[in-house]
Amino acid sequence: MMTYIVFILSVIFVISFVGFSSKPSPIYGGLVLIVSGGVGCGIIMNFGGSFLGLMVFLIYLGGMLVVFGYTTAMATEQYPEVWVSNTTVMGVFLLGLLMEVMLVLYVLKSEEVGVVFKFSGVGDWAIYDTGDSEVFSEEIMGVAALYSYGAWVVIVTGWSLLVGVLVILEVTRGD
Amino acid sequence: MNPLIFTTILMTVLLGTMIVMMSSHWLMIWIGFEMNLLAIIPILMKKYNPRTMEASTKYFLTQATASMLLMMAIIINLMHSGQWTIMKVFNPTASIIMTSALAMKLGLTPFHFWVPEVTQGISLTSGLILLTWQKLAPMSILYQISPSINLNILLTMAVLSILVGGWGGLNQTQLRKIMAYSSIAHMGWMTAVLAYNPTLTMLNMLIYIMMTLTMFMLFIHSSSTTTLSLSHTWNKTPLTTTLILITLLSMGGLPPLSGFMPKWMIIQELTKNSSIILPTLMAIMALLNLYFYMRLTYSTSLTMFPSTNNMKMKWQFETKRITLLPPLIVMSSLLLPLTPMLSILD
């Protein structure tokens, strides 16, 4: 099972995305986002990115999702919608689940899958060590490069975040 | 809106487009598009009524979908070429997806449905920014990937856009919807010649932006958003009726005005590449555009449009001063003799 752990985690990832795309109430969407964040962290960690995985947990789940949960809890209704309370939501969820199951069976059975681009069976998801940077881990070098060569990216993303806050304040301010 | 915040947000719109036009890394281009989209939403929503909110929501949804498609095309390109540099997209799947994404951003058929609705729901100044500045960024990317675009898809979208832009504008009396359909048609002309000579796309973009700026500024000057309201300008500022006449005929592509220049060059370039039926069809469909421009000029400058007597006097506190208007009017009507200068766009 450990050779296909990334495949399994990716499937759970997609299923949890289907879970919140079928639009239950935002509280339950946030619940499924926690699951998908945790599973995404697992996928990154399996490729050797321990720092980035912990970043997902700390910043995404522990920061942004907590704030999202608090604001949703302030604005929630008395009987929020679950997946089983509304036929439409359940229908969409089951449809997404069915499509995912069919895709997984297709990938498991056939040698090569060519949906939009080609996967060569399940082998693409298996972990194998091809990186020859044995001294430094690649992923932590990437983070370091972001702050040295990629200073412009940091400036642009920082400015986008600032303007994002201004835009949201402007839009929700009303008259 | 607080002037400081408004300035910041407007500068971010400019910065987003600049980042798109200047980057060599696909990810930065995507970031530029998102920054542009994020910052233009409060500009579209300057007045807080349900109309503008609906228009901004529609704009956001379509443009966000287009950005997602663009990201998918970027990743497919990365998978198959292994690098992030901007150049022609070698993989056909990625190329088609990217062309569709950029067509959605521009408002080409079959992704044109948002243009009239969004343009109608927002104020005239926001509509101006939407129809001119927002076209620069996707067009620059199309220019850069132009050698690899699937010609069938591009030409189909272009011809259908000219048709939809001409046909759809026929039944409109609201000026913003007329400008929206005119934008769809002009985008069609621009993308038709993209695969043959991208310099002419840039020329058409330049002339189109000048003419659209002029038209919107004339509308803002007379505070009119419907044909009926525009037809009262003979009473307030009779000079602008002549200017509206000249600019609208220039938009329709009549010689000797500057709007004729891009159409002439495009048809010449297409016939040089041995396609005769296509430019003939395009020229014939441009007549539909000309028809509703002429209807506007007829009601505005050529006749005194019937209205009740108390509507004839327009009530306005002070005349808006638009400094840029006279040079724009001159440029959008008298540039035809400068056609050989289009070589500077290379």
UniProtKB/TrEMBL annotation, chain A:
Compartments, as annotated in UniProt: Mitochondrion membrane
Listed Pfam families: Oxidored_q3
Primary subcellular site in the record, as a coarse category: mitochondrion
TM stretches of this protein: 5-21, 27-44, 51-71, 83-108, 146-169
Any GO MF annotation of the entry: NADH dehydrogenase (ubiquinone) activity
InterPro entries assigned to the protein according to its UniProt record, in alphabetical order: ComplexI_Subunit6, NADH_UbQ/plastoQ_OxRdtase_su6, Nuo/plastoQ_OxRdtase_6_NuoJ
Bilayer topology term: Multi-pass membrane protein
Keyword annotations from UniProtKB, A to Z: Electron transport, Membrane, Mitochondrion, NAD, Respiratory chain, Translocase, Transmembrane, Transmembrane helix, Transport, Ubiquinone
Enzyme class: translocase
Protein family per UniProt: Belongs to the complex I subunit 6 family.
Function: Core subunit of the mitochondrial membrane respiratory chain NADH dehydrogenase (Complex I) which catalyzes electron transfer from NADH through the respiratory chain, using ubiquinone as an electron acceptor. Essential for the catalytic activity and assembly of complex I.
Protein name stated in the entry: NADH-ubiquinone oxidoreductase chain 6
Organism expressing this protein natively: Equus caballus
Gene name linked to the record: ND6
From TrEMBL, chain B:
Reactions this protein catalyses: a ubiquinone + NADH + 5 H(+)(in) = a ubiquinol + NAD(+) + 4 H(+)(out)
All residue ranges annotated as the NADH dehydrogenase subunit 2 C-terminal domain in the record: 290-342
Keywords, alphabetical: Electron transport, Membrane, Mitochondrion, Mitochondrion inner membrane, NAD, Respiratory chain, Translocase, Transmembrane, Transmembrane helix, Transport, Ubiquinone
GO CC annotation, single: mitochondrial inner membrane
Protein name: NADH-ubiquinone oxidoreductase chain 2
Domain (NADH:quinone oxidoreductase/Mrp antiporter transmembrane): residue spans on this chain: 23-285
InterPro entries per the UniProt record, alphabetical: Complex_I_Subunit_2, NADH_DH_su2_C, NADH_UbQ_OxRdtase_chain2, ND/Mrp_TM
GO biological process terms held by the UniProt record: mitochondrial electron transport, NADH to ubiquinone
GO molecular function: NADH dehydrogenase (ubiquinone) activity
Residue ranges of the TM segments: 26-45, 57-76, 96-115, 151-171, 202-220, 241-261, 276-294, 322-345
Domain of life: Eukaryota
Entry-linked Pfam families: NADH_dehy_S2_C, Proton_antipo_M
Subcellular location(s) per record: Mitochondrion inner membrane
Topological type in the membrane: Multi-pass membrane protein
Gene name as annotated: ND2
Family label: Belongs to the complex I subunit 2 family.
Main location: mitochondrion
Record note on quaternary structure: Core subunit of respiratory chain NADH dehydrogenase (Complex I) which is composed of 45 different subunits. Interacts with TMEM242.
Taxonomic source organism: Equus caballus
Known EC number: 7.1.1.2
Enzyme class of the recorded protein, top EC level: translocase
